[in-house]
Amino acid sequence: MKVIKRDGREVPFDYTKVKRAIEAANAEVTEADRLSDTMVGFVVGRVEKRCAALNRAVSVEEIQDMIEEELLAAERPTLMRYYSAYRLRHALLRKQNTTDKRILALLRHDNELARQENANKDPVINSTMRDYLASEVSEDICRRYIFPEDVMKAHDEGIIHIHDMGYISGPISNCELVNLEDMLQNGTVITNTLIEKPHSFSTACNIATQIIAQVASNTYGGQTISLAHLAPFVDVSRQKYRYEVRAELTAVGEECTEAKINHIAEMRVLREIERGVQTIQYQIQTLLTTNGQTPFVSVFMYLDEVPEGQTRDDLALIIEEMLHQRWQGVKNETGVWISPAFPKLIYVLDEDNITEESPYWYLTELAAQCTARRMVPDYISAKVMKRLKNGDVYTCMGCRAFLTPDTRGMNPDGSHKYYGRLTIS
Q: In this predicted structure, what is the pLDDT of residue 352?
């Protein structure tokens, strides 16, 4: 007589396994609900006869059903229930794998690997734990269905490393060069809400941080924005302030010269730049994405990315304020000034800021002071990059990788496209 095991193999019927299963349940009930050794033998004999009467191979599940029926026939309903529970526990144990153990460890807050895996993620926080739970399931799918066994063996032995395996099973990118210019100039949609072109620099900064949050919640890597995309909105605010100052001076009967109007408006512009940069810094510090971490953001600072003149001078004002606020740092929970991890700052060295005679040398001096105190910004040589990247200068991704020049999608003016592109593991 043959028994069909769960993996499909056929093996001879072994009455001792049936006997051990009944005895295990027998040991968990009270004396009054137990079967005597003789009765256990009788039940096992009954099950064996019923199997033989089928004149075919019988499955394990069929045998277990027969045991439950015989225990009921022996008027031992409590014992039958305990046997069913024993049967269920073993079914769960068979299904359990290492993924279950890691998930249970996360829920108990004793998964040491999760604690050490990413300094920017606290596995005790609910949103982070949710992300880790999903990651464990994704990694299990990768191990069993996506990657060949030899690849996983090499990964486990440290010969290779599969980066962010917990996300690869889904259609998620890992580094984005955000096209902030397009979304600010032409409008965008965030959570089904139309966001139109901003009418001030501070509003542009606020929208930029919302875009950063949305991108960060739909990725598992870094992202980069350019301050050049915010620069045009400084003059938008300037023109608004000039109109307001003129109206205010006229209303109170004050002298209304262009020089006075421009002076007062410029002071308001500088205050707005300070507030806008502060918005970017504090929003990034305090935002938590859906995976429970601060957005991995890099900020690109390249003067020649905008035309020479007012826009470039306005970009210089933003860069100056960004460097000044980073030099100052942010206060931690005890009020001590510290160096925040993000946003990462990237400062480009070019002909207009590398010598004492160059017009923006003061920015390079400020950048150096900031680096000495806060270890940012990083520096890019425009001269070297133009030689290596087909004459282009553009920021690295949030993951510190540079996109290669595109071979198909060119801008209308024939230049390469970088903003709006991303990488996929």
A: 96
